[in-house]
Design goal:
alpha/beta; TIM Barrel; Arc Repressor Mutant, subunit A; 2 domains; 9-stranded mixed sheet; 3-stranded antiparallel sheet; binds iron/sulfur cluster
Length: about 375
């Protein structure tokens, strides 16, 4: 079943490392909500035969929206699309925007999964990342959500920060595990071009973490979380049994999703399109009955094979029978040289008719993907 993504393009402040589309001026919020609801309805004709089983509010900071904003968005979604009553419904939240009242409101809505952008449990690291919350507020958010009955919570963490040592990273992971959440995402810090962080590195004010140390942190993460009962089901994502993020799995498994809001990308019937990365422009296009996409591509077979392999290597592996019936050739035969070499060197394995990377292979995922 396909998923639904909604991009909420507002943040209180812009974090130095972030290249997601969001703005700190909230004056267009009402116009955004109105356009979002129109956009939801405008795609219904091509999606009437589909049933959806995930909804994901991402951003930006969706937790900045009010209870009545959410209510009206849910009303538009449920009255337009066939949505499974068992759907996973996630809201990304910044701990700096949450309190007990806000979380109580989430509980009254169909939301059943909270993804918290914690990033670190160390105040000096949060300060470096220009996050608006403290470590204490992050812990409070998790505990309050749990007290209110949320049973599916993710904590996002970032490692390989400049000046971060292995002990600090271990502390972050131990704190997250100690909070008993069902899911942990652990990403290494990326210096995205155009961000203030990128510019700081360019002028020598900040140095990237040592590559060896970054590998150690990644390897520690994989081993430690495995020992604590988390399954690594994607290169940066770890979940307790049955708590893999169903929505994100759609991206990695090459399944369909429809997305609304500025900069949001959809993938339906072999076509991918991305909305314009500008709130005013996006709103204007939707309000005048036009398509909000400024980029569309049809995924041809060659691209589909490449994406299937790349996404598979990063996540659950490549199911060989499924691959053969989809692309009409045998993965093992076509790529016999890299497959044999990777298995021989312990970077990959074949189990239950699936070719997948080992823990050692995950550490070199991008390099390995280039062999195919
Ligand atoms: S809160 Fe999230 S989306 Fe907003 S600027 Fe920070 S990292 Fe980016």
């Amino acid at each position: 079943m396909p998923g639904i993504y909604l991009h909420v393009p507002f943040c209180d402040t812009k974090c130095i490392y972030c290249d997601f589309y969001s703005i700190t001026n909230h004056s267009q919020k009402e116009k955004f909500i109105s356009a979002l609801k129109k956009e939801i309805v405008s795609h219904s004709h091509k999606l009437s035969s589909r049933k959806f089983d995930t909804i994901f509010f991402g951003g930006g900071t969706p937790s900045l929206l009010s209870y009545s904003d959410f209510n009206s968005i849910f009303e538009a979604l449920y009255s337009t699309y066939n949505i499974s009553p068992e759907s996973e419904i996630t809201i990304e939240s910044n701990p700096g925007t949450l309190n007990a009242e806000k979380l109580r409101e989430f509980k009254k809505l169909p939301i059943n999964r909270i993804s918290l952008g914690v990033q670190s449990f160390i105040d000096s690291e949060l300060k470096f990342l220009t996050r608006i919350h403290s470590a204490g507020e992050a812990v409070y958010s998790v505990k309050t959500a749990q007290d209110l009955g949320f049973e599916n919570i993710n904590v996002d963490l970032i490692f390989a920060l400049p000046n971060q040592n292995l002990e600090n990273w271990k502390y972050n992971l131990e704190t997250a595990v100690g909070l008993n959440t069902q899911h942990i995402s652990a990403y290494s810090l990326i210096f995205e071009e155009g961000t203030p962080l990128f510019n700081l590195r360019q002028c020598g004010k900040v140095n990237e973490a040592d590559i060896e140390l970054e590998h150690q942190m990644f390897e520690f993460t994989m081993e430690y979380l495995k020992a604590k009962g988390f399954k690594q089901y994607e290169i940066s994502n770890y979940a307790k049994d049955g708590f893999e993020c169903k929505h994100n799995l759609k991206y990695w498994n090459h399944e369909e999703y429809i997305a609304f809001g500025p900069s949001a990308s959809s993938f339906i019937a072999g076509k991918r399109w991305t909305n314009v990365r500008n709130l005013a422009k996006c709103t204007e296009l939707v309000e005048s009955g036009k398509d909000a996409a400024d980029f569309t591509e049809t995924i041809d077979t060659k691209t589909s094979i490449y994406e299937h392999i790349f996404l598979g290597l990063r996540s659950k592996g490549i199911e060989l029978n499924d691959f053969k019936s989809k692309y009409k050739f045998d993965f093992r035969e076509k790529y016999s040289a890299p497959v044999k070499e990777l298995i021989k060197n312990g970077f990959a394995e074949i189990n239950n008719d699936t070719f997948r990377l080992t823990t050692k292979g995950y550490a070199l995922c991008d390099e390995i993907a280039s062999k195919f």
